[in-house]
Every structure is written in C-alpha cells, then in structure tokens.
Amino acid sequence: MEEQKSRVAIIAAHGTLDAAYPPLILATAAVAMDMEAAIFFTFFGLNIVKKGMADKLKVAPIANPAMPMSIPNIIGMLPGMTSIATGMMNSWMKKANVAKLSELMDIAAESGVKLIACQMTMDVMGIKREQLIDSVEVGGAATFLEFASRNAITLTF
Amino acid sequence: MEEQKSRVAIIAAHGTLDAAYPPLILATAAVAMDMEAAIFFTFFGLNIVKKGMADKLKVAPIANPAMPMSIPNIIGMLPGMTSIATGMMNSWMKKANVAKLSELMDIAAESGVKLIACQMTMDVMGIKREQLIDSVEVGGAATFLEFASRNAITLTF
Amino acid sequence: MEEQKSRVAIIAAHGTLDAAYPPLILATAAVAMDMEAAIFFTFFGLNIVKKGMADKLKVAPIANPAMPMSIPNIIGMLPGMTSIATGMMNSWMKKANVAKLSELMDIAAESGVKLIACQMTMDVMGIKREQLIDSVEVGGAATFLEFASRNAITLTF
After folding, report:
1. Are A21 and C40 a contacting pair, CB within 8 Å?
2. Which are the contacts of B10, defined by CB distance < 8 A and separation ≥ 6?
3. Which residues of B touch C11 (CB under 8 A)?
4. Contact C48, C54 (CB under 8 A)
5. ipTM of this complex prediction, to 2 decimal places
6. Is the N end or the C end of chain A the one with fewer CB atoms within 10 Å?
7. Chain C residue with minimal CA distance to B93?
8. In the predicted model, what is the mean pLDDT of chain B?
9. Alpha-carbon distance A35 to A23, whole Å?
C-alpha cells in the first residue's frame, strides 16, 4: 500500500444527466487529490461517452418523487416535460458554477482519468469505436476489475 | 490494517424511500460490528437529511417492473398512486418491525455514523444549512474520498 | 493481503433486467480471474433469485431518457410497452451472444459465487426460503459486510 497510490474506480451504468455528474465530479476530485481514477461506462452509461452526447443528456421528470421540482407523474409524462426538467437542472448547475459535462469530461481526460467504454455494451447495442469520443479506451469487465483490485474506492452510479 | 478499523463509506444519491433505507441499515449495522461508517448525501439524496423529510420520502409506483405490488405504468402514473405505493411499503416495513427512517437516522447519528451533506448539491439546489437536520455536517467530494480512502467498504445507493 | 484473494462484493438492489446483468457478469468475470465473489440480493433485487424469475425480468420503457430505443414517456407508459422494451433488450443480448440471466446464475453458482438473499427483505415482502432458487443462502447486512470487509471491490447495482 505504501508504494501504491489510492485509486477511485467508478462504474457509470446510467446515462441520464443526474447519473453522469457524480462519476465525473468524483473522478476529477480524486485526481486533484493525487489519486488515480477510472470510469467504466457500461449499459446505458455508454451513452455518456458517445460523441456529442455529454451535453445532451437528459433527466427524467417522472418516477422520481425526490426531485426538487416535484411534479405529478401524470404531468411529468407529457411531451416536452423531459426537456423542461433537463433545462431546469442545467440552469441550476450553471448558476452554481458547476462545469458542463463535456467540460468535466475534457478535464477528466486531460488530468489522466482513465475512461473505459464497455466492449460488451458496444456489441449489444451495436455501437462502433468511431461513435465514441477519442479519449476513451475500450475494455471489458476484466479491465475494470483489474484496475479496481488495487487499493481502490469503488463506486457505482 | 491492524491499527485502522474497517470502514463503510456510503453515497446516498437518490431520495426515494427505497433508496434511503439501505444506506442507513448498512451504516448502523456496520457500527454495531465495530466498524466506522459515513454516509454522503448528494444529489437527490440530500432530500433524506432535510428537516422533517425522512418520514415523508416516497416510492415511485412506475418505471419499476420489479416492484412486489406490480401495477401497469398507465395505472401507476395516476394521481394518488405514489401515496398508495408509499403507504404499502411503509406498512410492510412496520409489520416486519423495521424502524422508521427518522428513527434509523437518530440511531445512526447517536452511534457515531458520520452524516455528510454535499456542499455542491446545496449550492445547486439552493438549500441552506438550517434546512438540514442538526446531525449532519457539510462537506464535499474530497471529504467523502478522504474518509473512503482508508480501508473502507464503499457503496452507492 | 498476500494470503487473501481479491474479492468482489456486490449488492443487487434492483430487480430489473438491466440492473440484474451487471452483478452476474462482474461476479462471474471475477471468479474467472481467480477472485472470490458474492452477490447480496436485497430490496427489489431479491426478485432476481426468486424461482423462475431470472428470465422473466423486465426493463422499464419509461423514465430512462438514455435508453437506446428512446421513446416518449407518454408512449412508454402504454400497456404492452414494457414487454416490447424487454423483448428488444433480450434480443440484443442474444444477438451479441450474451448468456441469459438464468444461465449466468447457474454459472455463478457452479463457479463458487456466493449468492446471498437478504433476510430482512424476505421478512418485509413475506417471501419464504422455498420461493427462492436453491443456490442462494439467506443472510443479513452483517453477512454482506463481513464478506466485503476483507480486500474487496464493493459495488452496488
């Protein structure tokens, strides 16, 4: 342990706006604290590293009674409500000076966070390497477990 | 490891009834096993530590085909269904002698579980310290990572 | 650490098709890498280890704007849409040669993955031992924490 830096190994399995922030915030905070960090984008989380998608992620306005702008599901499911909820969350983030997801992704890549796209998910969803942002590498469960098995804080979002 | 107690470091990122129970149950179980424990309340999870909210959390009756009282989404989205699903879950918990969330929160605080409210989420959602229960402290990603980096079981809900 | 194998300790708290795959894929990958693995099935995740349920799990067609087959919530909540979304996901899995969940569960059990059903959830939901598949054992939060406290990658789905 003395010779091995602390690590943070994160699985991003959901591709919504609210689920994409914590992995990127924690990973960039970790490298700022001189830890190593990796994010494994799998299942719906693969969405986050598709080219041009980071700033288009949405938040679901239904099935979440803990949302600050709580609205009945019968209203939330109406067309347009996903955009409205997403717009509100983005404006709150901006007002609080939180970086956009694309910016956090750039900061993560530049500061050495290992970004891993799940090979199996790519196969299942028919997604090709060129559809993903350049800064990701492609790997599998073993790639993640190998990284996570050495002195790592492991988190799932 | 001999000198450092085992720890449990939990992120509570969702504020629904079903997502609030596991962090509190695991953290209180951990301290009973002579481990140290912390819960970091972030994003929608901040809801759990708002004053008076613990026993008002709700469960979503839609978008969860694994619910025991499975109902079609078209029914679940009707007004009143969130209350009905929440009432059912609370009554099951009570019948099985599971403590209410407010009671678990008190047990957690009294037994030394570190309860941390996410500063960034407070900024983003415009929530002030006085709106949160007294037993939480306010901290950031670094506070959590610092705690989690020493011999900790790290979990996310 | 030299004498202790690396471990993967996973909590499966959701019982949807998409939430059931990652624990089983990661646990079976871990044992293939000569690690030890355990999955703790709790809350809605208990659903996964009910007899005959593994291949009947469903994916929710609503409240997930990151789904590859993105449909408006107002359409997704219509009767029959859960089946359609589930059928699509299953067919993609099959096309990519990913094993069915029941097969993964058998592989997990045979390769020594410890499958633990949460006692408290059984009490709360009124589920009896004989309703669960034979390969699970019944345990509590302490059983999980005990396993997870020794050199483990800990993940939650």
Report:
1. no
2. B23, B26, B27, B37, B38, B39, B40, B154, B155, B156, B157
3. 22, 155
4. yes
5. 0.93
6. N
7. C124
8. 95
9. 14
Q: What is the pLDDT of residues C36-74, one digit of tens each?
A: 999 999 999 999 999 999 999 999 999 999 988 778 999
Measured in angstroms, the CA of A41 and the nearest CA of chain C are apart by: 12
CB A121 within 8 A of CB A127: yes
In a mutational test of the A interface, the residue from C39, C107, C151, C153 whose CB has the highest number of chain A CBs within 10 Å is: C153
What pLDDT, in 10s, does the model give residues C90-146?
999 999 999 999 999 999 999 999 999 999 999 999 999 999 999 999 999 999 999
Q: A146–C33: do the CB atoms touch at under 8 Å? A: yes
Please give the single-letter amino acid code of residue B3. Answer: E
Residue of C nearest to A49 (CA): C66
Q: Hey, what amino acid is at B52?
A: G
pLDDT for residue C1: 46
* DSSP for chain B, written as a single string: --SS--EEEEEE---SHHHHHHHHHHHHHHHHTT-EEEEEE-GGGGGGGBTTTGGG----SSS-TT-SS---HHHHTSTTHHHHHHHHHHHHHHHTTPPPHHHHHHHHHHTT-EEEEEHHHHHHHT--GGGB-TTEEEE-HHHHHHHHTTTEEEEE-
Which two tokens mark C56? 């009947």
Cβ contacts (< 8 Å) between C64 and chain A: which residues?
14, 16, 44, 60
